[in-house]
Amino acid sequence: MARNGYALAAFSAFAAAAAAVWVRGAPRSPEDIMLAIVCWIVFLELSARSRPHCDATAFATRKLCHAGCGLGIMQLDPHQLAQRVFVWAIAASSILMTWGLSPVPRFRFARPDDVGVTAYLCLVSAWFYLRLPPAILAPVFFADPAGAVFGKAATALLGAANARWYSNKSVVGSAAVLAFTYITIGFPCSLLQRGAISTAAMVAEAVGGEYDNLALAAVVLLGWLCV
To answer: Membrane spanning segments where (predicted)?
Structure first.
């Protein structure tokens, strides 16, 4: 169990470092970004199929897909029709695969009929339909998976010391949601406002259940509109 926790944390840290290097690189064309998103999804799927199925690995792969695709989507412009259509196509095909409505087999790392993934994809699609700035969704792309990864890794390493404070939400996991929301808020606000939005986002993510992405996004959107 502890070994899985170490592996999960190391895998996620490596992915975060690679993402940071990618973001700091030279500006890329929309076509490059869209190709990178597709290649990332294919890479994760082939990686999942190349190894015996393991819940911990599938979990980490789901979160890497969530954050990695989010990173790419943040670089796209919702005012450009081709980029909106790309996001909608990725979302629609992924939803059909998740619910077994596509001739293409389900993702190896996905959970069948996953309501959370469906809500996430619908949220991003609606965001691009409304032509809202994708950077505002950064806490959804990073804070939500960070909470799951850090929470699960801490439970594997610390056991009962990582106490649950609400339903299946752990102290370390929720602290990660708060911290990553605070770091990734992409609009100007004071430190007090940033702290208040991050705390509200942490609570919303905890009580949101299968719709935690929508709850977190609602808090961030409200914060953006109010500050």
So the answer is: 85-102, 171-192
Mode of pairing for the β-strands spanning 164-166 and 169-170: antiparallel
* 124-134 burial code (b ≥16 CB/10 A, e <16): bbebbeeeeeb
The verdict on pTM exceeding 0.85 is no
C-alpha to C-alpha distance for 221 and 140, rounded to whole angstroms: 11
CA distance 110 to 97: 9
State the total domains in the chain: 1
Q: Give, in degrees to the nearest 5, the angle at Cα 174 between 208 and 124.
A: 50
| Rounded CA separation 64/155 (Å) | 19
pLDDT digits (tens), the chain, 227 positions: 445 444 544 555 555 555 554 555 555 789 999 999 999 998 888 888 877 767 777 888 888 899 999 999 999 999 999 999 999 999 999 999 999 998 988 888 888 888 888 999 999 999 999 999 999 999 999 999 999 999 999 998 999 899 999 988 999 999 999 999 999 999 999 999 999 999 999 999 999 988 999 999 999 999 999 98
- Token readout for 153 is 């890794």
How far is the first Cα of the chain from the last one, in angstroms, to the nearest whole number?
Answer: 44
Residues 105/35, Cβ–Cβ less than 8 Å = no
- How many other CB atoms sit within 10 Å of the CB of residue 144? 28
Query: Cα 121 from chain centroid?
Result: 10
Using CA atoms, how far apart are residues 219 and 212, in angstroms rounded to an integer? 11
